[in-house]
TrEMBL record:
Residues 4-251 form the ABC transporter domain. Coiled coil: none annotated. SMART domains: AAA. This is FeS assembly ATPase SufC. The keyword Cell wall biogenesis/degradation does not apply. The lineage of its organism: Bacteria, Bacillati, Chloroflexota, Anaerolineae, Anaerolineales. GO terms for molecular function: ATP binding; ATP hydrolysis activity. It comes from the Bacteria. Keywords: ATP-binding, Nucleotide-binding. InterPro entries: AAA+_ATPase (IPR003593), ABC_transporter-like_ATP-bd (IPR003439), ABC_transporter-like_CS (IPR017871), FeS-cluster_ATPase_SufC (IPR010230), P-loop_NTPase (IPR027417).
C-alpha cells in the first residue's frame, strides 16, 4: 500500500506499555483523525512513527510505502517523506526559519535525486514568499530564529509552513489546532486542505476538538483509548464524541 501502515505496534516508556497492539492504515490521499482522552498515547504514537529513539517498538511494524522502517533514523524517515507537526514545537535559536527550511528542502531533494545541487536561492525565496502569504505570515518571520519567541499560534503556523515547503508524503499533525485563534484555525485548515489535495498526501490528524474537523473533513475518525484504537467511523463520530464524551465508548468497549 502506498502510504503509512502500522501493524500491531507496542511501545514502552520506562517499561510501561503505552502503545498497545496498535494498528492503522493511512493510504496516500486520505485524511484520518485520531481522537482520544488525555494520556492515551497519541503523542507517543506520533513520536514512535517518526522514530524517536526513546520510543522503540517492543513489537509490531511501521511501514512506509510497504517498506518496514522500524530501524530507520528520524532523519531517514523525514527524507523518505514522513513529517511531524509537533504538539510543542521546539525553538532553535541561531537558525532562521529561511535557513532551516532551505536546508531541510535541500536534504529532501538530494534524497530523491543524489545529483541535485539544491534549490536556487531566488526560486526558494519565491516559494517561501508564496507559502507565507498563503498562511498570512508576516514576511519578517523568515529571518527570525525558528520558533524563538513565537506565540503558540505562530509556532503552529510555522509547522504548517514547513509542511507546505517540504511537501511530505505522510504528515502527522499533533494538535495543530491548539493555540490557534478562530481566524488562524481557518487559515491553517485551508492551507492543510490545499496541500493535501495538491500533493495527494496522507494525513493523520491528532486532535481533541471536533471544530478542526469542520474545516478539514477526515475520511475516517478513530478513537484511541488506552494505547490502541477502540472505534473507527465516519466524520460524524467526532460530532458524537463532542456531544457524549468518552464514557459511552468505555461502557460499550470494555478495555482489557
Ligand atoms: N518521557 C516520559 N516519561 C514518563 N511517562 C511518559 C513519558 N512520555 C509519555 N509518558 C506517559 O505516557 C502516557 C501517554 O502520553 P502521551 O503524551 O502520548 O498522551 P496523549 O494521548 O498525547 O495525551 P494528551 O492528549 O494529553 O496530549 C501518559 O501517561 C504520559 O504520562
Amino acid at each position: 500500500m502506498t502510504g503509512l501502515e502500522i501493524k500491531n505496534l507496542s511501545v514502552n516508556i520506562h517499561d510501561k506499555e503505552i502503545i498497545k497492539n496498535f494498528s492503522l492504515k493511512v493510504p496516500k490521499g486520505e485524511i484520518h483523525a485520531v481522537m482520544g482522552p488525555n494520556g492515551t498515547g497519541k503523542s507517543t504514537l506520533s513520536y514512535s512513527i517518526m522514530g524517536h529513539p526513546a520510543y522503540h517498538p517492543t513489537q509490531g511494524e511501521i511501514l512506509l510505502n510497504d517498506q518496514i522502517i522500524n530501524d530507520w533514523s528520524p532523519d531517514q524517515r523525514s527524507q523518505a517523506g514522513l513529517f511531524l507537526a509537533m504538539q510543542y514545537p521546539v525553538a532553535v535559536p541561531g537558525v532562521s526559519v529561511a535557513n532551516f527550511l532551505r536546508t531541510a528542502m535541500n536534504i529532501r531533494r538530494k534524497a530523491a535525486n543524489p545529483s541535485d545541487k539544491g534549490i536556487p536561492i531566488p526560486e526558494f525565496r519565491k516559494i517561501l514568499k508564496e507559502k507565507m502569504a498563503y498562511l498570512k505570515m508576516d514576511p519578517s518571520f523568515s529571518s527570525r530564529y525558528l520558533n524563538d519567541g513565537f506565540s503558540g499560534g505562530e509556532k503552529k503556523r510555522a509547522e504548517v509552513l514547513q509542511m507546505a515547503m517540504l511537501k511530505p508524503e505522510i504528515a502527522i499533525l499533533d494538535e495543530i489546532d491548539s493555540g490557534l485563534d478562530i481566524d488562524a484555525l481557518r487559515i491553517v485548515a485551508e492551507g492543510i486542505n490545499t496541500l493535501a489535495q495538491e500533493n495527494q498526501m496522507g494525513i493523520l490528524i491528532i486532535t481533541h476538538y471536533q471544530r478542526l474537523l469542520d474545516y478539514i473533513k477526515p475520511d475516517v475518525v478513530h478513537i484511541m483509548m488506552d494505547g490502541h484504537i477502540v472505534l473507527s467511523g465516519k466524520s460524524e463520530l467526532a460530532l458524537e464524541l463532542e456531544e457524549k464524551g468518552y464514557d459511552w465508548i468505555r461502557q460499550e468497549q470494555p478495555l482489557p
